[in-house]
Amino acid sequence: MVIITIHDKVSTGLAGFDQAIDMLRLGDNVVWQVDSVQDYLKVVTPYVAQAKQDQRKLVYIRFGNHEPILNDDSTIKVYQVDATKGFESFASEVHHIIEQEGKRTFYVFDCLTDLLESWYSDLMIGNFFKVSCPFLFELDTIAYFAIIRNAHTYSTIAGIRETTQLLLDLYEVNEKMYIHPLKASERYSPTMFFPHLIKGPEAICISASSEIAELFSSINRGEERLDYWNVIFANAREALNLDQEQQNQTKRLLISLLIGNESRMSELCYQYFTLNDILNIASREIGTGFIGGKSVGMLLARKILEEDESNRFQPYLEPHDSFYLGSDVFYTYIVQNGWWKLRVKQKTADGYYQFAQELREKLLHGKFPDKIKERFVQVLEYFGQSPIIVRSSSLLEDNFGNAFAGKYESVFCANQGTPEERYEAFVQAIRTVYASTMNEDALTYRMNRGLFEKDEQMAILIQRVSGDHYGESFFPHIAGVGNSSNLYVWDKTIDMEAGMLRLVFGLGTRAVDRTVEDYAKIISLDDPLRRPLMAIEDEKKFSQHYVDVLSLSKNKHLTRRADDVLLNDLGIDKQLFAKVDGETLTRMKELKINHLNVPYILDFQRLLKETEFASLMKDMLARLSSIYEYPVDIEFTGNFKENHPFKINLLQCRPLQTRGLGKPVEMPKQLDKDDCFFSQTGNFMGGNVRLPIDYVVFVDPQSYIEQSEQGKYAVARMIGKINTALKGKNVMLMGPGRWGTTTPSLGVPVHFTELANMSVICEVASNDGGLMPELSYGSHFFQDLVETGIFYIAIYDGQQDVVYHPEKILGRENCLSTVLPEGAKLANTIHIAKTTGMEVFSDIVTQNLLCR
After folding, report:
1. Distance CA 253, CA 236 (A)
2. Is residue 458 located within the same domain as residue 477?
3. Is residue 287 part of a domain?
4. Were 250 and a residue from 239, 423, 669, 746 both cysteine, which residue would form a disulfide, CB within 3.0 to 4.6 Å?
5. Is 68 left (phi over 0), alpha (psi -120 to 50) or beta?
6. Is the pLDDT of residue 4 over 50?
7. The domain that contains 360 carries what CATH number?
């Protein structure tokens, strides 16, 4: 119990009112419901005068568009806080002001209702109050706030009433001022909650029923209001009947609320979306706020294709019926679970990594407000038992400049079981996406790109999974990613501007990730049947062997052998996607192995040869790139019927982050092939370069292969430390197989953040250990390379036109222990050579690559 002494009591400046409420207490937040800002002034003025008389520290928080509450006064510190920057920026700045000003400060805030002009959401005003007032209370401050009567929802007022210490109605009736206390914590009298007439220094209690009835009958109490957000969109529907100019003005406003302020993406949305389109998007939003970058990219790309004058794409597009969880729900989830102070601490430079894990754990276990839970139930009822996917759609995601490829989670919900089980799985999927904002890769990505102080609200895209039931599994026939510019070419005849695809059978998770012992199909769209760099006998080895599906019996995402999945009736000839593996079949017969399963190789040859699929995807990428005026990266699925009619579901579209080809480079003449570290034709990505190399970090293939699994992970962690130690230098990282794999037997299992400072990475084929580079173009790993500006090389030693002399590095002194003394124990595996004067040259046109 808090014991209040006489010294903790503070005057309001109105002596009679002090007596009515037994004065103010240190720690009080005082909220006035008023009809106008002018009425608010009538109680602020005596409060400020009394505080000055008592020599209190006074602070005025100014953010409203109304006339200033307080005039210039050297005894009052004024902070101008910009509400238009959004809730998090505003609330954080106010938090820091309160922290800085410290204990027993007296505050005056502008009218909170003015925040509607910036946030358009009652919900967020309530959230601001809930995060600020407890902090003010902790510091024994007194703060005055105002809200306009009948301008907010009952739930907003209820939240304020619950949080504040005093809630007071202020009326002016017949030129008389009345104060009606609605809540007064830690104090009570028999007459406290009657209305009081303020008459000079007196506060006269109005207790007679006839007088109270007469007073209240003259006051407009108003009816239950919609959230201001809903009012804006309801009014916008009426604009559909107005002229085009008025519709455009309304459309511009709604785009700023759902999509964001002025940007290249918002301008494209304004150009392609009608007012009715925007209203339809809003009708499928849960909560309020932005729908996020992934949702915007998907919707905009679809609209661009639908509006194509030739009607080239509309017949092939699978409809979507997605929902959008607004970004304000993310903040509400944090605020209402009591984690805002932790969030503020985590957003500081010192707390950025320190508090991330704690916040991540909390995000995985929070509760949602009842109104949001009701909407979740409605969404699940809408989808029934169709599988759905819950996808991140942050404000910074999939935009020009920042793709965040693979940094945040997407969670499949097979959506089987009882309604209660399906609901809990769905809500946990949302929590998982929220928690992924605190993943190490996401934190490092934001830090490296100078985004750690920016508001990163997480909206969510909820999509029906594209596909059908095949046996007890659910999946689409095909899925993949596409890029409108093919930056990785392995043949100088390839037309880079025709684009490329990374294609898989089943769910697209195997297309966006570097898969284990598996290969997606790489398709150069200028000639879809062109064979990648492999020998004919290696076709099966470098093909897809596993398929990702949703298991309806096990109610989860699973990986299954391709041959097992192909046993199902696919509703179409499976040889559209796969051919019989004749060599394996012949061997089985020779060995007299009776096997019911016919072995297949997923080669997609008939799909590419007999359908319009490849040409449609080429045209689709070209159309989107042309409108974006920028290369694009898409994710898609495809589903087929007999006689090959098909539908493409465009799941995602974002600007492809690329630094371009660069200016042509004059390649040096090579008089002696042995006079270089390596040279080859093709198998590189990163444009035309002439790049000096300060150090080469070389992982010896044989020594790495001989390491235990634990030893291989130790090598990976050491590479991460070297990556930090040599930051700022031009470093080439070379190693066997795939960098960034999750399987040590396929390459060095570094996280991308552990090689992000490198200038060049080389994946070297090691025939002895079976470690091979992977043409990972289109994967999240590839996107990270392009965004970070890392030049990529795959070296297939022994192939024609490949010259490779690792001894030119291994013959130099190993600087590992100098760069990182603790690395000496791995000196047999990791060799660091100082290579002053070494340069890498590449030419896109001739596909020549040279390092000497």
Report:
1. 9
2. no
3. no
4. 239
5. beta
6. no
7. 3.30.1490.20
Structure tokens at 803: 């010259």
My answer on whether 428 and 480 are in the same domain is: no
Do residues 606 and 725 both lie within one domain? no
Decide which of 217, 251, 281 is a domain's last residue: 217
Q: What is the pLDDT of residues 207-242, one digit of tens each?
A: 777 666 766 666 666 666 778 898 899 999 999 999
Amino acid at 372: I
- Whole-angstrom distance, CA of residue 697 vs CA of residue 775: 22
Helix (H, G, I), strand (E, B) or coil at 700: coil
At 775, the pLDDT band (50, 70, 90 cuts) reads low
Q: What secondary structure letter does DSSP report for 85?
A: G
Tokens of 576: 């559209």
What is d(CA 548, CA 504) in angstroms, rounded to the nearest whole number?
9
Residue 3: is it exposed, middle or buried by C-beta count within 10 angstroms (0-12/13-18/19+)?
A: exposed
Cβ atoms 661, 814 nearer than 8 A: no
CA torsion, ordered 676, 682, 685, 688, to nearest 10 deg: 70
Separation CA 698–CA 692 (nearest Å): 17
Alpha-helical (H) ranges within 389-436 are 419-435
Domain for residue 298, yes or no? no
Instruction: Show which of 464, 493, 511 is a domain's final residue.
Output: 464
Query: Do both 164 and 178 map to the same domain?
Result: yes
Q: Are 24 and 10 in contact (CB under 8 A)?
A: yes
Q: Residue 754 falls within a domain, yes or no? A: yes
> What does the pLDDT look like over 292-341, one tens digit per residue?
989 999 999 999 999 999 999 999 999 999 999 999 999 999 999 999 99
**Structural domain of 175:** 6-217
pLDDT digits (tens, 9 = 90+) for 601-615: 999 999 999 999 999
Coil, strand or helix at 783:
helix
- Provide the domain count of the chain: 4
Q: What's 511's domain CATH number?
A: 3.30.470.20
Residue 519 structure tokens? 């290969």
**Chain segment 43-80, per-residue pLDDT in tens:** 999 999 999 999 999 999 999 999 999 988 889 999 99
Phi, psi of 139 (to 5 degrees): -95, 15
Closest alpha carbon to 403 in 329, 331, 297:
297
CB 766 within 8 A of CB 701: yes
Residues 686 and 760 in one domain: yes
460 close to 392: Cβ distance less than 8 angstroms: yes
The predicted-structure confidence for 397-437, as pLDDT tens digits, reads as follows 645 445 455 578 899 999 999 999 999 999 999 999 999 98
> Does the residue 242 lie in any domain?
no
- In terms of domains, do 357 and 212 share one? no
pTM: 0.83
